[in-house]
């Protein structure tokens, strides 16, 4: 029972940090993360690195990355740093490489697709996003990004989005997909 409560308190502490971020209190979130005890150090340093990237503090993010033991988490934040440094071509390679190495490959591949979109390689971006929509549960960010690429690639974007919505409706609803309810905003309509 004590272990359960300890786990719940740790989770609550991380959720409080997330709430500070949502409120725009990024420095407060960083100080709160510093105050947490008995929390996985990689998790805290990963979140601090993400906060630093969001604040534009590249040096601070780099210091947090150096404290992360997990190669996977380091690779993810380093890929974000390439974007923060406005190096989109290297970012594509960083996200693709991470997507090939790690289990969260759908998330990582989606980020590669977004970088491809920003470098003007729309056909490659479209291929990745459509494959992800077919193979995985569609979540709002994936749907929005795919719909955006449809807008950039074709004058028949609405038809493509309707076809996407139809194909998603034919799939079984799962908790990870968020169920059946989708708004027009998810499809950028």
TrEMBL record:
<protein>
    <recommendedName>
        <fullName>Coatomer subunit epsilon</fullName>
    </recommendedName>
</protein>
<dbReference type="GO" id="GO:0030008">
    <property type="term" value="C:TRAPP complex"/>
</dbReference>
<dbReference type="InterPro" id="IPR011990">
    <property type="entry name" value="TPR-like_helical_dom_sf"/>
</dbReference>
<dbReference type="GO" id="GO:0005794">
    <property type="term" value="C:Golgi apparatus"/>
</dbReference>
């Amino acid at each position: 029972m004590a272990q359960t409560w300890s786990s719940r308190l740790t989770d609550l502490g991380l959720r409080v940090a997330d709430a500070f971020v949502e409120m725009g209190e990024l420095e407060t979130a960083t100080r709160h993360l510093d105050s947490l005890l008995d929390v996985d150090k990689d998790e805290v340093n990963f979140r601090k690195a993400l906060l630093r990237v969001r604040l534009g503090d590249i040096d601070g993010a780099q210091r947090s990355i150096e404290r992360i033991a997990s190669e996977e988490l380091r690779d993810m934040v380093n890929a974000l740093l390439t974007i923060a440094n406005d190096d989109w071509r290297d970012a594509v390679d960083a996200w693709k490489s991470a997507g090939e190495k790690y289990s969260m490959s759908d998330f990582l591949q989606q980020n590669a697709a977004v970088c491809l979109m920003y470098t003007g390689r729309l056909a490659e971006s479209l291929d990745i996003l459509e494959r992800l929509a077919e193979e995985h549960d569609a979540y709002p960010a994936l749907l929005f990004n795919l719909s955006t690429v449809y807008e950039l690639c074709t004058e028949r974007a609405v038809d493509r989005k309707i076809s996407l919505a139809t194909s998603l409706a034919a799939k079984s609803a799962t908790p990870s997909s968020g169920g059946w309810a989708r708004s027009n905003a998810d499809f950028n309509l």
